[in-house]
C-alpha cells in the first residue's frame, strides 16, 4: 500500500474529530457506550492525578456580598455613623408619625408628673405606654422626659403642706414607681429639668422645701430603680460660656459626678434665628462640662428675622448646619434632638404664654405640610459628609 503523507487540513480535521469525541464521551450518560479515539495506552485522569504542567487552573469565583444602600434620610446616615438623631414623638397625627419613624432613631417621650399622677395615689401610665410602644415598635431608643420638672408639678403637691422628710419620700417614691415601670423600655432619662435659678425661676417647690440637694435625691432614686439607665441633667441657656444657667449646670454636674450619679448633661438649645450662638463657643462649652453632652430640645425660632421667605430659610438652615457640626466635631456630644416636626405643631407657634411665641416662628426642619425645609437638607448634608469622611473623623465613644 503506497505511503500517504497527511496534509495540514486533513490532520486538523482528524484532530478536531478526536477532541469532539472526547468531549462527547465526558457528557454521555453512563448507560451508553462511548467512542474512544485516543490510543488505548493513553492514561486517564482521575481526581488523584496531577494536572498537566501546561493546563490552566480554572479560577474560583466567590460571590461578593451586595452592600445595603444607606437610606437617604437623617436616620439612614445617623444609623450608619452610630449616632443618635432624636425627635419629640407624638404619633397622634399619622403624617407626623411617618416623618418621626422615617427620619429619627431616638424618640423623646415627654410626660409630666402632673399627668402621670393627678392624685397622690393615682398612677395613669396610658400616655407613657402609647409613646413607648410607638418608639420601640419603630426601632427607636427612648428617652423619658422629664422625671422632675418643677414648673409643672402636680396640683395636689402644691396644696399639701409637707415637711422636708415628707417631700423627700414623695420624690423618691414617685421616681421609683415610674422608672421601675419603664425599665427595659426607656434607656435614658432627663431626671431633673430646669430647677431653681434666681431671680429667673422662683416656683421650684422642691428647692423651697428641701434645698438644692433635692436634685441629688432624685438622681439617687433613679439610679437605684434602674442602674443601667442613662441619667441626664437638663437645662436651658447652658450651651454657651456666658449662658444664664451655664455656671449652675457646672456646679450641679460636679456635685453629681463626685457621687457617680450622672451620665450626661442636656442642652436644650431653643435658639433665636436673630441671634444664633457662636459655633466655637458652643463646642468649647460642651467640652467644659467634662461628661458626655446631649442636645435635647433643638429648634430655631425665626421670629423677627427679616428678609423674604427664601432668605429666612437659608439663614435658618445655616444655624441648623453649624450646630449639628458643633455637636459632631466636639467629640463629647452623643445625640442631637429636634423638639418636634412640623412648624404649625411647634410649641413656639402654639404656646401663647411662651415669651418668644410667634405664629411665624417656623422653628422646625419641616414646614406646616411636613415637607422638608432647607434646614433639613443642611442637616442631611452634614451627616452625609461625615459618613463619607468617617475614616478620618472619629465619633464619640461615650455612652449612646
Please characterize this protein's 3D structure.
With 400 residues, this protein is α/β, with parallel strands linked by helices. It has helices at 8-27, 74-81, 94-103, 113-116, 126-137, 155-159, 164-182, 205-209, 214-225, 246-258, 279-288, 309-330, 347-350, 374-388, and strands at residues 84-88, 106-110, 141-148, 188-193, 230-235, 264-267, 270-272, 293-301, 333-338. The radius of gyration is 34 Å and the shape is globular. Residues 1-56 and 392-400 have low confidence and may be disordered.
Biggest β-sheet strands, sense, barrel: 8 strands, parallel, barrel
CATH class value of the largest domain? Alpha Beta
Mean pLDDT: 86
User: Per DSSP, what share of the residues sits in E-state strands of 2 or more residues?
Assistant: 5-15%
* Fold-level CATH name of the largest domain: TIM Barrel
- Please mark out the parts with pLDDT under 50 across 5 or more consecutive residues, or reply none: 1-56, 392-400
Q: Based on the structure given, which CATH architecture of the largest domain is correct?
A: Alpha-Beta Barrel
The CATH homologous superfamily of the largest domain is named: Glycosidases
The SSE order reads: HHEHEHHEHHEHHEHEEHEHEHH
Shape: globular
Element layout with pairings:
Blueprint: H1 8-27, H2 74-81, E1 84-88, H3 94-103, E2 106-110, H4 113-116, H5 126-137, E3 141-148, H6 155-159, H7 164-182, E4 188-193, H8 205-209, H9 214-225, E5 230-235, H10 246-258, E6 264-267, E7 270-272, H11 279-288, E8 293-301, H12 309-330, E9 333-338, H13 347-350, H14 374-388
Parallel strand pairs: 1-2, 1-9, 2-3, 3-4, 4-5, 5-6, 6-8, 7-8, 8-9
Helix pairs in contact: 2-14, 7-9, 11-12, 12-14
Amino acid at each position: 500500500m503506497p505511503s500517504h503523507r497527511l496534509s495540514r487540513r486533513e490532520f486538523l480535521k482528524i484532530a478536531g474529530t478526536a477532541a469532539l469525541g472526547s468531549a462527547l464521551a465526558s457528557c454521555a450518560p453512563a448507560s451508553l457506550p462511548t467512542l474512544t479515539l485516543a490510543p488505548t495506552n493513553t492514561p486517564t485522569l482521575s481526581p488523584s492525578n496531577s494536572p498537566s504542567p501546561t493546563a490552566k487552573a480554572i479560577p474560583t469565583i466567590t460571590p461578593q456580598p451586595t452592600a445595603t444602600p444607606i437610606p437617604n434620610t437623617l436616620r439612614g446616615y445617623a444609623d450608619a455613623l452610630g449616632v443618635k438623631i432624636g425627635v419629640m414623638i407624638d404619633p397622634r397625627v399619622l403624617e407626623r408619625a411617618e416623618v418621626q419613624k422615617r427620619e429619627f432613631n431616638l424618640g423623646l417621650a415627654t410626660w409630666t408628673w402632673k399627668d402621670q399622677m393627678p392624685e397622690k395615689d393615682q398612677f395613669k401610665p396610658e400616655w407613657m405606654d402609647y409613646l413607648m410602644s410607638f418608639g420601640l415598635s419603630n426601632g427607636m431608643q427612648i428617652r423619658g422626659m422629664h422625671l422632675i420638672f418643677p414648673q409643672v408639678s402636680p396640683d395636689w403637691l402644691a396644696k399639701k403642706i409637707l415637711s422636708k422628710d415628707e417631700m423627700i419620700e414623695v420624690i423618691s417614691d414617685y421616681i421609683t414607681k415610674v422608672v421601675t415601670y419603664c425599665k427595659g423600655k426607656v434607656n435614658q432619662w432627663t431626671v431633673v429639668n430646669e430647677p431653681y435659678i434666681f431671680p429667673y425661676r422662683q416656683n421650684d417647690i422642691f428647692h423651697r422645701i428641701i434645698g438644692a440637694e433635692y436634685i441629688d435625691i432624685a438622681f439617687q432614686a433613679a439610679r437605684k430603680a434602674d442602674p443601667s439607665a442613662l441619667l441626664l441633667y437638663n437645662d436651658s441657656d447652658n450651651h454657651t460660656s456666658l449662658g444664664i444657667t451655664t455656671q449652675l449646670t457646672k456646679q450641679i454636674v460636679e456635685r453629681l459626678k463626685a457621687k457617680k450619679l450622672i451620665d450626661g448633661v442636656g442642652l436644650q438649645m431653643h435658639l433665636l434665628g436673630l441671634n444664633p450662638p457662636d459655633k466655637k463657643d458652643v463646642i468649647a462649652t460642651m467640652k467644659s462640662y467634662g461628661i458626655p453632652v446631649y442636645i435635647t430640645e433643638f429648634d430655631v425660632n425665626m421670629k423677627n428675622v427679616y428678609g423674604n421667605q427664601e432668605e429666612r430659610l437659608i439663614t435658618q438652615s445655616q444655624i441648623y448646619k453649624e450646630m449639628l457640626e458643633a455637636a459632631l466635631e466636639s467629640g463629647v456630644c452623643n445625640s442631637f434632638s429636634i423638639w418636634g416636626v412640623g412648624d404649625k405643631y411647634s410649641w413656639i407657634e402654639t404656646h401663647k404664654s411662651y415669651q418668644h411665641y410667634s405664629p411665624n416662628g417656623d422653628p422646625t426642619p419641616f414646614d406646616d405640610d411636613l415637607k422638608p425645609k432647607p434646614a433639613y437638607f443642611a442637616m442631611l448634608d452634614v451627616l452625609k459628609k461625615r459618613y463619607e469622611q468617617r475614616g478620618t473623623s472619629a465619633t464619640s465613644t461615650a455612652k449612646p
